[in-house]
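Field guide to reading this record: the first block holds the primary sequence, the second block holds the structure written as discrete tokens, and the final block holds curator observations. Each block starts with its own label. This record concerns MetQ/NlpA family ABC transporter substrate-binding protein, catalogued under organism Laedolimicola ammoniilytica.

BLOCK 1 — SEQUENCE
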Amino acid sequence: MRKLTKKLAALALGVVTVASLTACGGSSKGITIAVPNDTTNEARALLLLEENGYIKLKDGAGITATAADIAENPYNITFKEVEAAQVPNVLKDVDYAIINSNYAIDAGLNPTADALTMEGSSSAYSNILAVKEGNENTDKIKALKAALESQAVADYITEEYDGAVVSTVDNPTDGFDASVDYDALAGTTITVAASPAPHADILKVAKDILAEKDITLDIMEFTDYVQPNNVVDSGEVDANYFQHKPYLDDFNEQNGTHIVSVAAIHVEPMGLYGGKQTSLDAITK
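BLOCK 2 — STRUCTURE
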């Protein structure tokens, strides 16, 4: 509950505390990098910096690392922890920011053109379709899952995002599940909570597929990482599509929710963007 309170406060205020860690003998110029403040996305950001040689994390820090897990910080980087959706808004005020691709796209950034460096398309961070535990095998969810795993969705992702978003569906289908009674679903509505971009846009392709069977997909857009899980866990909404599984696992643990993944749809490589700086050279000079 304490962690949820912190996230909600960050939504209202935009930023949280600044953490600065300095290694002996390091640079004194104090580059500032904004990073998401939720556990799994902050870890992704730190792992990206470690991969590029700017910091070193403690052994075993892994996908739940925070700034406290930085073992070596030779370039005296200061970390400004910000709610993930707000990171693009502080870009102009910091030297660099590490931004989730969905929020970068929503802010008018082109990840493949504007990011100075990006993480690889690790399947650990595939964005998932998630539902309340126990609803995984309902016809509604199977129909939505099939539509999102379609060739039409995979093609849309490839053509629309040019590598900024990558489909992780190994064997795309025609968008329909033979085990679903589509006649019984005709005239019904499936509700799904999603981030505006790219999730809501991708869901519009699935919406067209479901419409062929007279099923309405109601896409409900959220701009935070808390409410989409709350409304699914409460039963108000059938499913959500906005997060990766490490984030979901952490959310369930911290909040006592019971939400499960039913499909991995795409991955959004996280990128390091220049704010006051226009190249990576400023980090090491």
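BLOCK 3 — OBSERVATIONS
Residues 1-28 have pLDDT under 50 and may be disordered.
Residues 139 and 184 are 9 Å apart (CA to CA).
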